[in-house]
Design a protein that fits this description.
Blueprint lengths: L2 H17 L24 H14 L6 E2 L1 H16 L14 H7 L4 E11 L4 H9 L2 H7 L6 E8 L11 E10 L8 H37 L3 H50 L5 E2 L1
Parallel strand pairs: 1-3, 2-5
Antiparallel strand pairs: 2-4, 3-4
Helix pairs in contact: 2-5, 3-4, 7-8
Length: 281
């Protein structure tokens, strides 16, 4: 068989097996694809589920998903992608997670944020990463946190040839309780009690001055008949004065209770309005 014939047959065989690869022996048809970066779909629901499983394992109450926090978390992730930064604060605008939460119409008492960027093999992988970081774990297990919102967004703007990174955001928060100021009725009662208290003590002072003047007249009076009459009048006024003082003391004690109640409501309102600090990890 000539060389040319052998070459022709080889070319024909190559063309045949290229067109019909199923005829190649199986041990020669094994193609190994590079392992994928992600082995499961990254999603917020599983991240919340895994986060709550960890809290429950520690005896903590699970967090409730809040759509406003979810919206804020999505905004935070997209903002980092759009503006090419990875931090808790946008270096251009100065906006942080608290601003995003407020913009989502969520009135918080306290909040915290966990962020992450990269390619993960699973949802558990990213949650375990946060749990294994002391600062991030502190946010997850915070007993004062009651609600959560999560976003996991793929960055599709990465240059060609580079794997697309994912941005993960956990926003934790507790809503602001219903902080009620003392009512107008409370304020009106306090003012009325103060007015009555001032009035009765003004009357006490007037009667005291009248008794002092009458006492001085008695000392100057030389007529026993007139003196005895003034003494009887003095004793009558002393009895009235003592009754008025007793009433004034009772009014003052009542005023103290009203003032204490009003101040307690003011203090409770102020304490309620004091938002806790933001923890960033």
């Amino acid at each position: 068989m000539s060389f040319r014939l052998i070459l022709l047959l080889s070319l024909l065989a190559a063309l045949f097996f290229w067109k019909y690869p199923e005829y190649i022996p199986s041990q020669q048809r094994t193609f190994h694809k590079p392992p994928g970066l992600l082995s499961e779909k990254m999603n917020a629901s599983d991240i919340i589920k895994l986060t709550n499983e960890y809290r429950i394992s520690l005896g903590l109450t699970p967090l409730q998903e809040n759509f406003q926090l979810t919206h804020a978390a999505e905004y935070r992730a997209n903002d980092m992608i759009s503006n090419r930064y990875y931090a808790h604060v946008n270096p251009i605008t100065g906006e942080g997670p608290g601003d995003a939460i407020k913009d989502a119409n969520y009135q918080y008492r306290t909040y915290a944020e966990n962020i992450a960027m990269g390619n993960w093999q699973s949802n558990r992988h990213i949650v375990d990463g946060w749990i294994n970081s002391p600062g991030h774990r502190a946010n997850i297990v915070n007993p004062n946190i009651s609600e959560i919102g999560v976003a996991i967004i793929k960055d599709t703007t990465t240059p060609l040839g580079r794997p697309s990174a994912y941005y993960g955001v956990q926003l934790f928060a507790s809503p602001m309780p219903d902080c009620s100021r003392p009512s107008e009725a409370d304020k009106a009662l306090l003012q009325e009690m103060q007015r009555k208290n001032d009035d009765i003590w003004r009357r006490v002072n007037i009667q005291k001055s009248e008794l002092e003047r009458l006492q001085a007249r008695i000392h100057r009076e030389n007529s026993n008949t007139a003196k005895n009459k003034m003494i009887n009048d003095y004793n009558r006024q002393v009895n009235a004065y003592n009754s008025l003082v007793a009433e004034a003391n009772g009014m003052q004690e009542s005023l103290k209770l009203v003032v204490q109640s009003y101040n307690n409501k003011i203090n409770a309102y102020n304490a309620c309005m004091q938002a806790d600090s933001f923890v960033s990890k």
